[in-house]
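Recap from last week: sequence in, structure out.
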Amino acid sequence: MKLLATSLDAVKPSPTLEITKKAAQLRREGVDVIGLAQGEPDFPTPKHIGDAAKEAVDRGLTRYTDVDGTPELKAAVARKFKRENGLTYEQNQISVGTGGKQVIFNALRASLNVGDEVIIPAPYWVSYPDMVLLAGGSPVELPCTAEQGFKLSAQQLRSAITSKTKWLILNSPSNPTGAGYSRDELVALASVLVDHPHVHVLTDDMYEHLRYDGWEFNTLASVEPRLYERTLTVNGVSKAYSMTGWRIGYAGGPQELINAMAKIQSQSTSNPCSISQYAAMAALDGQLVFLVERNDVFRERRDLCLDTFNSIEGLECRKPEGAFYLFPSCQGWIGRDTPGGARLNDDMAVARYLLEQARVAVVPGSAFGAEGHFRISFATSTERLRDACIRIRLASQQLN
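Predicted structure tokens:
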């Protein structure tokens, strides 16, 4: 009898595994590898958040909580949604999980049946298609090119919807491209969705507060109130508040779905860490003034790398509206030869070359459903980014 579930057969191993393993090996050997692969802010968690966690420990708030979040944290989430997004949710419409990933997985697992389709604009966060597959659904990937700003058009969406479509997943600003939808672009998508009442929307707003050049964030349920009842608005504290390790994500949505998500969570992880929940309350209720300075630093880093990539022969990169990623095209390198005589046949070979020649770790675009690109995170020190840009330029000059 086969030990492993057949559902795992459709889940692909990470295309970045080889790069990650090689980078780790080089570091163990004492090689200075600059890691631009991980999407994690290099800033510390703000002090007032850490202080709230310490207070929770001192008060002995270390026991089990309600499965999908304490009433106090749900109230803070509701205040956040109302204050920042104009969305009104009762506590029974809010779910808190161990990171945004668990919240999204719970929603898909609670709602998908075999054959249900989920529309996923590509490039996409690597986990979306595999989470859909693990939940029994069928991912429908729609390529969105740099020429269209890496964003889904209303025409594409209308053409992709079938009687089997259950969800549209919309991530803005996006991982891996940083592309953010304008209000007008969301209105256009909403006009299609209104005509198809069987389609639900999962908006992943994790990078909401990381935005540049005056770009204004909007989320679909507030742009089109007629979609409120069939939208799950997902967010979390990981990125904006530099709380990746605290593992708190949350969502607001239909009560029926929220209840089903709680049922799944009750039989998997149960409640998120109690201390992290109290820290998240301080984050959501606290001031965001610290983000102004941090976003200025991120923008400077973005522009440093953007200017470098767009001045290197064979690379071309679009300016992102938010998040902390760049997603340059390396199509101009494909087909060229390395100094050792190896042919760069695809973006995986490009990532391998940058690691071995430049000692810079990047993620190939194929991991995100967009071959011929690579992703870097500029959420690392400016000094290291400047060094990485120099190394990438030198590596480009050695291609034949």
